[in-house]
Amino acid sequence: MNNVTLIGMPGSGKSTIGVILAKALGYQFLDTDLVIQKQEKRKLSQIIAQEGPERFKEIENKVNASVDVTETVIAPGGSVIYCEEAMKHLRSIGKVVYLKISLESLSKRLGNLRGRGVLLKEGQTLKDLYEERVPLYEKYADIVVDEEGKDLEESLAAVLEIINTGA
């Protein structure tokens, strides 16, 4: 129970905050999207294009459900919340922290979603995706950190404070 898993929308800062958080805690850092890419020997966007969203979710679920680490900050992909088995596992090995950000702020941060390997259904907009995912992030989160109006340092400080106080 000594891991921290960061969940949230693509662009919410999971990898960026995760690396710095790991250093601050003296933990390792694990980006499970990189594990998927290494295992599959191709980029996420290629997996989604070649295999389809459902097959990608199966791969993502398997990788995240088999994470076996201690004292690690884990940053899974934003779509991990569709993988019930993976989320149950991640919750069983540590705290799950939802990095919450507004749709407006997210729109400013994100570029090409498909190029990032974001799981979008045909015709789905960022707003649609946001509205679909937020309730799932909230469902699985042990802790919610609102990043609105915070820079990287302030977001990191908020995560550290909550983790350290056990709130």
TrEMBL record:
Catalyzes the specific phosphorylation of the 3-hydroxyl group of shikimic acid using ATP as a cosubstrate. Monomer. Its cofactor is Mg(2+). Mg(2+) binds at S15. Substrate binds at D33, G78, R133. It is found in: Cytoplasm. Its EC number is 2.7.1.71. One of its GO terms (molecular function) is kinase activity. ATP binds at G11, S12, G13, K14, S15, T16, R116. This is Shikimate kinase.
